[in-house]
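Listing S7. Sequence submitted for prediction.
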Amino acid sequence: QVQLVESGGGQVQPGGSLRLSCAASGFSLGYLAIGWFRQAPGKEREWVSSISTGDGSTYYADSVKGRFTIPKDNAKNTVYLQMNSLKPEDTAVYYCATARRPGLTENEYTLWGQGTQVTVSS
C-alpha cells in the first residue's frame, strides 16, 4: 500500500523539542520532494519546510527558520522534522506530503499522510 505515515507528535512545554517522522511505504522516496505542512485550529494549512531528497536541498518558512530542521534517512525511507525551541504558536496538526519538487503550496503535493498533533503548552 502506497502511503505516508507520520508519527512523533505529542505535548511539549514551550522551549522543548520534538521530532516528527514521515515514513514512506509501498514506494521509495528516491528523488521526490517531501514537504511538511501544519494546520492550527481555525486556520488554513500552511507550509513549514521541504526537502529535495535527491540533492538534499532544504527550505524553511520564516516562522520556523533556525528552530526546525528536516533531516532524512534514505535507508529508512523516512524524512523527519526536528523541532526545537517550540512555541505555543507551533501548536497544530502536522502533515507530510510528497511532490515532484519542493514547492511551497499544497496543490503541488499529491500524497499526504494522516497528520500528527503537536501541542506546545505549559
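Caption to Listing S7: primary sequence and predicted C-alpha cells for the chain studied. The CA atoms of residues 90 and 102 lie 21 Å apart. The two ends are 39 Å apart (CA to CA).
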